[in-house]
Amino acid sequence: MTDFVLRLIDAGGYWGIFLLMVLENVFPPVPSELIMGIGGIRVGQGRMEMEWLLLAGTIGTTVGNYFWYLVGHILGFGRLKPLVDRYGRWATLEWKDVEALDRLFGKYGQIVVFVFRFMPAFRTMISLPAGLFRMGHMRFLLWTTGGAFIWNVVLAYAGFLLGQNFRDIDKYVGPVATACVIGAVVIYLWRLATWKPRA
């Protein structure tokens, strides 16, 4: 994985960073920790500028998240009810739960989106409900960009400071991300087995 990221970054430069960050958020095959960390290493080697690295990474993150926001926005809140009525059992949701989520996003959507930008397994997932519950485009883009920028600054400077040792993070990031996904699946299966509709 590390070698693939290195080749694409070295071949594409800032465009490679942008493309990888879009892909990481649309189809998350590569962790952003690795992409921006390697970008930070390249800054330390004098092969990239930190400002352009952060710009490319943050725009790529925002574009990738906006894709899932638009999917949710096009599907729309109004089309959810038949789906929830029919398949709510598999999502362990009732329509009252969906209405509660709608109110949550109406009041605190920007905070939810901003905070989730720092969570390894859920950074991209939060974009879909943000679109479904009609969070405003500009609010979504503003808070997504802000959260993504802060996260990318942390990762890029970590790569810059740690240098080549940062490549070792691939040994740890992969298992941690896998553990988060497995944990989410276990929680879902437990909820599915124990869930009973209130009605």
Low-confidence stretches: none
Q: How many structural domains are formed by the residues? A: 1
- Outline, from the CA principal axes? elongated
Order of helices and strands: HHHHHHHHH
Rg from C-alpha positions?
A: 19 Å
Helical stretch count? 9
The largest β sheet comes out as: none
Strand-residue proportion: under 5%
Give the overall pLDDT as a whole number: 80
Measured distance between first and last alpha carbons:
48 Å
- Helix/strand structural class: mainly alpha
Keywords: Cell membrane, Membrane, Transmembrane, Transmembrane helix
Membrane topology: Multi-pass membrane protein
Protein name: Alkaline phosphatase
Subcellular location: Cell membrane
Structural commentary:
- With 199 residues, this protein is mainly alpha-helical.
- The chain has one domain.
- 78% of the residues lie in helices and 0% in strands.
- The chain has helices at residues 2-12, 14-26, 32-44, 50-75, 80-91, 95-116, 127-132, 137-162, 169-194.
- α2 (14-26) runs antiparallel to α3 (32-44).
- The longest helix has 26 residues, at 50-75.
- The model has no long low-confidence stretch (mean pLDDT 80).
